[in-house]
Amino acid sequence: MAPRWKWKGAEAKALAEPIANSVSELQLSLAKTESSGSLSSCNVLLAVEPEQAELLDRCCFGRLVLSAEKGKKWIQLSFEEAFYLLYNLKCIKIYLQGRCLEKEVDTWMYMRSKRPKFPIFFKAYSHLRSKNWVLRSGLQFGVDFVVYRHHPSLVHSEYSVLVQSGDSNRLRAWSDVHCAVRLSGSVAKTLLTLHVSGNSNKEDLNLPLCLENYTVEEHTICRWSPELSREDEIMKP
Amino acid sequence: MAPRWKWKGAEAKALAEPIANSVSELQLSLAKTESSGSLSSCNVLLAVEPEQAELLDRCCFGRLVLSAEKGKKWIQLSFEEAFYLLYNLKCIKIYLQGRCLEKEVDTWMYMRSKRPKFPIFFKAYSHLRSKNWVLRSGLQFGVDFVVYRHHPSLVHSEYSVLVQSGDSNRLRAWSDVHCAVRLSGSVAKTLLTLHVSGNSNKEDLNLPLCLENYTVEEHTICRWSPELSREDEIMKP
User: Fold this and answer.
1) Cβ B183–A186 below 8 Å, yes or no?
2) Tens digits of per-residue pLDDT, B100-111?
3) With a cut of 0.95, is the ipTM above it?
4) Which residue of A142, A172, A175 is in closest CB contact with B175?
5) H or E stretch covering A131
6) Which residue has the higher pLDDT, A43 or B175?
7) Residue A186 lies in a domain
8) Residues B139 and B236 in one domain
9) I want to staple A142 with a disulfide (CB 3.0 to 4.6 A). Which of A44, A218, B144, B178 is the partner?
10) In a shared domain, residues B50 and B139
11) Residue B106 parent element (H or E)
12) Which carries the bigger pLDDT value, residue B165 or residue A70?
């Protein structure tokens, strides 16, 4: 499926402003001000300057939290987004109840304790994000993430992503596969499954280094229609 | 959701010809001619007279198999449909490789051996069918059955049904629930789950009598929207 740009000129705008450039700019800016985020039970609140909030939005990290404070903006990040800024981009610090978590592993362990599947989900997130895909929650489409080629204001998401690991509950029954494929099709997305595997050793999970040992297998799943798949061009509708 | 009739006058036609009456007529007719069906690995081929084929269609049992034979029609029944005609309506006989299975339990065991979940699915099927709902495969909507108030030529299906038992794989993950609810909504159906439970004793599964001990719990699942659910009528859109 070709990308569906939202307006005329959106594609040109996307080409002129690659996400990778915005992310580099964001990385420099956040590192300079030593920006810090506070952990809560399922997300991270990041305090930033107004121009950094604008940069975060351009790169699609987090959501702006409305507040009356002047000169300071609050951004709510998912665990994946926050850990990506911390571990991959090294541009934020993380606080828990007012205390700075100096070591990345402390943040890692906290997030794992709140969400046992965090390592798997983070691997999937960082796998796509590091290739400059933009990820958002796929909650409303019954998947884990939706994936955009560029900012969601320019283009519709192209893939709906299910993250699979050895003990996943999804796509086990045929009816479940049908359901996911049909829903993805009806919202013009391609279903992408990311099978994350490796690290049977539980000890390794205690360090973000375990991410190095994970492998990600990508599969798109789509409906096969005999009529549309014939070799004979004339038979095509 | 109100039933969506397919054309003007369809509701009146449905009221004038209740499914229950057609089923009684079918039952009498098939019993009289001692109609017989042959088991194959996943369905049953039933040989009938042309007027019986028409009756089967009116009651929505099986699908006509195209054949050049004159004066005889072949109907392909699912295991659930065939066993319902055999066990609940007592109007057909079942053959396996040319030999009549005199006892219902032999057919039961054969179907169970081919599809371990058959008892659960048959309980769900017969539960709704005996209340004169019409059931069809829900394959294309990622569910087990779709359910019609009357013949599919008159009305759209109202419910998409997932059959659940203790060891079901569906609706375990939240994303799966979202997926099923959103897809059902987008095709104007209500998601209905039938939880079939009972018979922890494996021995009992060897007899169709175990059906008596099953209980079926019905739940519809739908999205809760705060805006649409306020008490204050004025606030409704």
Assistant:
1) yes
2) 999 999 999 999
3) no
4) A142
5) none
6) A43
7) yes
8) yes
9) B178
10) no
11) helix B104-114
12) B165
